TrEMBL record:
Keywords: Cell wall biogenesis/degradation, Glycoprotein, Glycosyltransferase, Membrane, Signal, Signal-anchor, Transferase, Transmembrane, Transmembrane helix. The lineage of its organism: Eukaryota, Viridiplantae, Streptophyta, Embryophyta, Tracheophyta. GO terms for cellular component: Golgi apparatus. It is found in: Endomembrane system. It comes from the Eukaryota. It is a single-pass type II membrane protein. Pathway: Glycan metabolism; pectin biosynthesis. It comes from Arabidopsis thaliana x Arabidopsis arenosa. This is Hexosyltransferase. It is an enzyme of class 2 (transferase). Pfam families: Glyco_transf_8 (PF01501).
Length: 390
């Protein structure tokens, strides 16, 4: 039965959340955040809006505190931490805040997660303002903001099927080996339109075997040929680059990356080479994804599909509603045109957008934030992690 009314959609999403999302990690101590908004308006009048200060998530007794005996200083070079890289910009800021919030809420040891946030040099809100807003929203967060120079890649970007895919910041993942501190040997890269509903440490513990550079959920049933133009497949030489490989589609919004091997293999340059070919002869239509497929497809460490339930934003044209894939869920990903915060504000949400809503810290959620138990947070620990969709 297809539910058509907002109340029914919200109830359906709530039931899915309670029954099928993995249990909360028991190592967290949560100190309620203040119900006070922090906001920022930049000099050019661009309003970032206001955000509620998040609850303070602390390590449980079984966690090894990374800040003990270090005067509360946590280094971005600490290899014992879980390192997560994300972009940070004014357009997707609300998504990034919700994504960070979700990871802290579900992490077994939230103080042991370090966020590497990459902001564009010429964002309408400066990297400094974005950094201040993150600090105000998450006062005890371990993070560092890096500046990405858009001129590094802007001349390599081709037109895409959707204008948003042409944003230079979408290509920051290509340059993580250069942007992040050289001491960062390994990182999880995540898009900003995700929420994590499981312990991020589980994804961090993925082993990259046989000298693989990246790990990601693969989808070998997908029609791989559609990610490239007929001009690519008819070229006498280009399809031969897949020779000896069994390429499968993977989504670059969730990747575990070995940055040591990445830097040693000059993989940034390999991606740029394909972007240069694209400028001369159009071989794909989908932004930053195809170069990754050309370089890595067929040599990716396969990660369980639960770590990227993608496509929830619909296709790249209509952004229509989608349902979850069959199976357990650890990460939900609104890839595609539709974003949950936009659809919720326009009062035309898809049912699954209500799963994103509890992590939203935007100001108009203050009343909801007064009672975070509304969505059964305390009872989720009683659910089994191995639940599957019917």
């Amino acid at each position: 039965m297809r539910l058509r009314f907002p109340m029914k959609s919200a109830f359906l999403a709530f039931v899915v959340f309670l029954v099928f999302i993995p249990q909360f990690s028991v190592g967290i101590r949560m100190i309620p955040g203040r119900i006070a908004a922090v906001s920022a308006t930049v000099g050019n009048g661009f309003d970032l809006g206001s955000f509620v200060e998040a609850p303070e998530y602390r390590n449980g007794k079984e966690c090894v505190s990374q800040s003990s005996n270090r005067e509360n200083f946590v280094s971005s070079c600490d290899a014992s931490l879980v390192h997560v890289a994300m972009t940070l910009d004014s357009e997707y800021l609300r998504g990034s805040i919700a994504a960070v919030h979700s990871m802290l809420r579900h992490a077994s040891c939230p103080e042991n997660v370090f966020f590497h946030l990459i902001a564009a040099e010429f964002d309408p809100a400066s990297p400094r303002v974005l950094s201040q807003l993150v600090r105000s929203t998450f006062p005890s967060l371990n993070f560092k903001v890096y500046i990405f120079r858009e001129d590094t890649v802007i001349n390599l970007i081709s037109s895409s099927i959707r204008q948003a895919l042409e944003n230079p910041l979408n290509y920051a993942r290509n340059y993580l080996g250069d942007i992040l501190d050289p001491c960062v040997d390994r990182v999880i890269y995540l898009d900003s339109d995700i929420i994590v509903v499981d312990d991020i440490t589980k994804l961090w513990n993925t082993s990259l075997t046989e000298s693989r550079i990246i790990g990601a959920p693969e989808y070998c049933h997908a029609n791989f040929t559609k990610y490239f133009t007929s001009g690519f497949w008819s070229d006498p030489a280009l399809p031969g680059f897949f020779s000896g490989r069994k390429p499968c589609y993977f989504n670059t919004g969730v990747m575990v990356m070995d940055l040591v091997r990445w830097r040693e293999g000059n993989y940034r340059e390999k991606l740029e080479t394909w972007m240069q070919i694209q400028k001369k002869k159009r071989i794909y239509d989908l932004g930053s994804l195809p170069p990754f497929l050309l370089v890595f497809a067929g040599n990716v460490e396969a990660i369980d599909h639960r770590w990227n339930q993608h496509g929830l934003g619909g296709d790249n044209v209509r952004g229509s509603c989608r349902s979850l894939h069959k199976g357990p869920v650890s990460l939900l990903h609104w890839s595609g045109k539709g974003k949950p915060w936009v659809r919720l504000d326009e009062k035309r949400p898809c049912p699954l957008d209500h799963l994103w809503e509890p992590y939203d810290l935007y100001e108009h959620k203050i009343e909801r934030a007064k009672d975070q138990s509304l969505f059964g947070f305390s009872s989720l620990s009683e659910l089994t992690e191995d639940s599957s969709f019917l």
